[in-house]
Amino acid sequence: MMIDFQILATEVGAIARAAGAAILEIYADESNFGIEHKADNSPLTRADQAANAVIMAGLTKLDFQAPIVSEENKEVPYQERKDFDYFWLVDPLDGTKEFIKRNGEFTVNIALVKDGSVVFGVVYVPVTGELFWAAKGHGAFEAKAAGPERIEAANFTMKDAGLKVVASRSHLNEGTQAFIDGLVDPVLVSKGSSLKLLLVASGAAHLYPRLAPTMEWDTAAAQVIVEEAGGKVLQAATKEPVVYNKENLLNPHFIVYGQLRD
Q: CATH: 3.40.50.720, 3.40.50.300, 1.10.260.40, 3.30.540.10. Which one for 5-150?
């Protein structure tokens, strides 16, 4: 199947922007976030559900049709998922905790997965209006008024001094601390949601060690953006790329690299 990713980027970008608008409408009304907690105690707001409704409606109207797996939909059993050719993998509001804190560091993530890897992804930042997208083999871009602008990850070696590392300043776990301790005068950069991967994709940071749990929908859209910007998202244990549509949708621990030279 030939997909025109340029057209898809325009269409899915518009869906992500519409979802972002739905999120911002609720974001403006702090007294009415409608915060609930899911079974795993992670927060859910009216904004997660509103964005999900917009994305579901938008994707089902596209000429290109594929099943949808979303964080906010009922879980699709693996028996059914394993036979999917293409499917959409969606996090309607990534960074719900950041949304609740009102620090602006949340995103809309829409990815297209085929055979375990992401072939297309859109990440939209509602508060800033920034929109990033990438398609496998086509490059990574930020949508600008004048047209798409290519983004590139920074070029570096692990021995360089002053590497910018995306990590939480407040709670570094042992594995992350050990990783950072192996670097020369690293500079810590803190960000929420999939913006962490975008910092590496755009060259604003060099490394992002994620030695803590994430789900597939948290990383899919941003992973293809990192890869097409020249970087890598590798499993910490095996150094193989992070893969998708596993039986368990929990990601392994991983490290995001910009353009690493030996």
A: 3.30.540.10
Boundaries of every domain in the chain: 5-150, 155-260
pLDDT at 30: 73
Separation between Cα atoms, residue 14 and residue 9, nearest integer Å? 8
Look over the chain and give the mean of its residue pLDDT values, rounded to a whole number.
94
Return the pLDDT at 133. Answer: 98
pLDDT on residue 172 = 83
pLDDT category of residue 262 using cuts at 50, 70 and 90 = confident
